[in-house]
Amino acid sequence: QLFLEKYGYFSEPGAGTHSPAEFTEALRDFQRVTHLPLSGELDAPTLHQMALPRCGTDDGESRAAGASRTSPTRRRRRTAQRGEHPCPVAGGRWYKRHLTYRVVNWPSYLPQHEVRLAVRAAFELWSNVSSLVFWETQDGPADIRLTFFHGDHNDGLNNAFDGPGGALAHAFFPRRGEAHFDSAERWSLHSGKGRNLFIVVAHEVGHTLGLEHSPVKSALMSPYYKKLSKDFVLSWDDILAVQNLYGKPAKGSAVQLPGKVFTHFQDWSTDLYGRDRQQRSLSTYYCHSFFDAITADGDHNLYIFKGSHYWVVSASGNASDPRPLQTRWPGLPASIDACAWSQLSGKFYFFKGG
């Protein structure tokens, strides 16, 4: 009952005061959201699902969405501040398109510049598919603040972190603008051991923008932790949800990138925020999700340009190794400003300078 209470599966607060019928219905709601057989009993699959690592933000509107499979307009209704019983409230979005964020602290065993790159990439996942623009600030106030805490951190006992496993992080809906991460977890910046910080930050940023948990299993906003794979990081449900709140990108179409882009932050050899611009790794992981230009051809292949190299991402999400620009386009200068592919001529057009 404490688990179901914490994650918003009872219509009224008060653990220990629910009737057997209410408990059974809450279990069915949980099983529906997590795509389990609707037994209404604490069977082995249900107990296993409850023990999996997940986001500590409650499942709110995804209960109803799981039953009705409604469109992402469900996410216009938001829960109250953490520590209170969830209830629908108005104003679950930001009323501006340019938002600042700040990484307040981070695990001491992770390099600061790599953490900041991973966080920036997490924000860019959302700005790539919406009208939002994000800017990092290193000190002072910010619209969205990311902070690591141990245990009880004055968010209410219901939101105290529980050590390794369980709730990995939680976030507040607009316009409080806070995401908290459990310092007791072993965080990682790559696809090996530990919780992938990039994927968890990207999920919690979704909450700070006003997105509820999604009942779609493949969605980034699904409540349960998922390892970073080669598939697209954002599902159709995530994209429709954020566009429902903030609209489509101001210029061009939404850009989706596969998880392979983000799996090896630890290989990055340069600090984009410092003066160290020495040797850059030409690993197969195309950089930091910050590119000179992106365009697509008639076969829906994505061409990503950065410096003196380019990458091709097929429609299925498979990425090529880095290829020198000069090999395909002799005489083309590095660091172009823009690129477009013409359906009429079948040619690429590049732009650089004034």
Q: Over the alpha carbons, how many angstroms does the gyration radius reach?
A: 22 Å
β-strand amount = 15-25%
Q: Give the overall shape, derived from the CA principal axes.
A: elongated
Which ranges are low-confidence, i.e. pLDDT below 50, for 5 or more consecutive residues? 65-91, 264-289
Number of domains: 3
Give the tally of β-strands.
14
Computed structural class: alpha/beta
CATH topology group of the largest domain = Collagenase (Catalytic Domain)
What's the level 1 CATH class of the largest domain? Alpha Beta
Protein name: MMP28 protein
Keywords: Calcium, Hydrolase, Metal-binding, Metalloprotease, Protease, Zinc
Binding site for Zn(2+) 2: 55, 203, 207, 213, 221
Pfam family, one: Hemopexin
Structure description:
Its cofactor is Ca(2+); Zn(2+). It comes from Pardalotus punctatus. Hemopexin repeats lie at residues 288-332. Ca(2+) 1 binds at residue 185. The chain has 354 residues and is of the alpha/beta class. The protein has 3 domains: 1-51, no CATH class; 54-246, Collagenase (Catalytic Domain) (3-Layer(aba) Sandwich), CATH 3.40.390; 291-351, no CATH class. It has 8 helices and 14 strands. It has helices spanning 2-6, 20-33, 44-50, 62-68, 112-127, 197-209, 236-246, 325-328; strands at residues 54-55, 98-103, 133-136, 144-149, 167-171, 178-182, 187-188, 195-196, 293-296, 302-306, 309-313, 323-324, 338-341, 348-351. Helix 5 (112-127) crosses helix 6 (197-209). The longest helix is centred in the middle third of the chain and has 16 residues, at 112-127. The protein starts with a helix and ends with a strand. Residues 65-91 and 264-289 have low confidence and may be disordered.
